[in-house]
Amino acid sequence: MSEPINVTRSSMPDFNEYLEEIKDLWNTRWLTNMGVKHQKLEVALADYLQSSYVTLFTNGHMALENTLEAFSLTGEVITTPFTFASTTHAIVRKGLTPVFCDINKEDYTIDVTQIKKLITKKTSAILPVHVYGNVCDTIKIEELAKEYDLKVIYDAAHTFGVRIAGKSSGEFGDASVFSFHATKVFHTIEGGAVTYHDSTLQPILMGLKNFGITDYEKIDYIGGNSKMNEFQAAMGLCNLRHLKEEINKRKAVYERYHRNLSGISGITLNRIPDLVESNYAYYPVLFDGYSCTRDEIYQKLRVNGVYSRKYFYPLTSQFECYKGVTDTGDTPVAEYIAQRILTLPIYPELEFDQIDRICEIIKS
Ligand code: T4K
């Protein structure tokens, strides 16, 4: 039997390139605490993401938790349950209440027509998720935020490298939070970052990620430790050099799937709108009225060594740990999609004959 095909496979720089990048760490012995690599990566990412400020974190989740804390949010945060555990967990772990809004059927992001009715006196922020690389309706969200004086923090874990009419996905809202996990289009092994435009946020985020230390003898915030170390940052510096090439390879994979699976009744493919430069992070397929259910396809692929994933099933609002803790909200579209969607393997090295085989299994 051939090698198993997982939903993704980490991109790696050439081994010698990484060795070269980390070589000087053996001389300097400066391994963490915002060293040279960390500083270089922050500057490079601010440029790449077209953001005034970037603060790095040891992972996307801690970036999210610290951002929620930095804005001193209280009460309720409007979000969606069609996401990875991290989004909802961050809200709850920061002592806030998630209020679940439904998603739309077109791109699986927050249904902006449903937000207004969820706003109460207790609402302090909206935390929408850019799902699979699909960017939310940022214009409408920011209109609402302005009208009701709410903060907007985007979970941009899936949209590194995405541009809309030339604008980076890191430019929207009060802040955008990225994940640089090993499974992401751009990674630092584990890692994450926040992009923002308000300079006053910078010392707060810095403090929160490093025990609140603002000077040797000055501790201004009750911060924890969520710094990115030098080996992570070095991986980021290497991966950033090859990002364009990696995204182009993903695009070819994406298009091969599209060629194989377009025009089949009961199969809905993701649509990338005009003016959007995608990062081709995920390949979601909706099985709705197809001759097999999503779960049957998932099993059939598994027995053939293909490990697709049900991102995102179950909805976070239905997690066991939230039973009796949070209100599940009224999200029929999210429920419908979560029952029917499957993310197929996608990564730069995935070969056309492997894609064709996956599609044959689905079609047969
Ligand atoms: N918000 C959203 C919307 C997110 O999707 C995420 C993370 C976050 C926030 C939080 O960001 P981080 O704190 O993670 O930076 C994976 C990732 O661990 C997670 O980062 C990601 N979302 C989520 C969607 O997917 P799992 O539990 O599905 O990963 P796992 O270990 O099953 O790996 C999936 C496949 O990836 C494996 O079958 C093979 C491949 N893989 C995995 C690892 C760990 C590699 O090729 N290399 C590796 O090192 O969560």
TrEMBL record:
Species the sequence originates in: Anaerocolumna cellulosilytica
Gene Ontology annotations of biological process type: polysaccharide biosynthetic process
Keywords: Aminotransferase, Pyridoxal phosphate, Transferase
Record flagged with keyword ATP-binding: no
Classification lineage: Bacteria, Bacillati, Bacillota, Clostridia, Lachnospirales
Name the UniProt record assigns to this protein: Aminotransferase
Similarity annotation: Belongs to the DegT/DnrJ/EryC1 family.
Pfam family, one: DegT_DnrJ_EryC1
Molecular function as annotated in GO: pyridoxal phosphate binding; transaminase activity
InterPro entries assigned: DegT/StrS_aminotransferase (IPR000653), PyrdxlP-dep_Trfase (IPR015424), PyrdxlP-dep_Trfase_major (IPR015421)
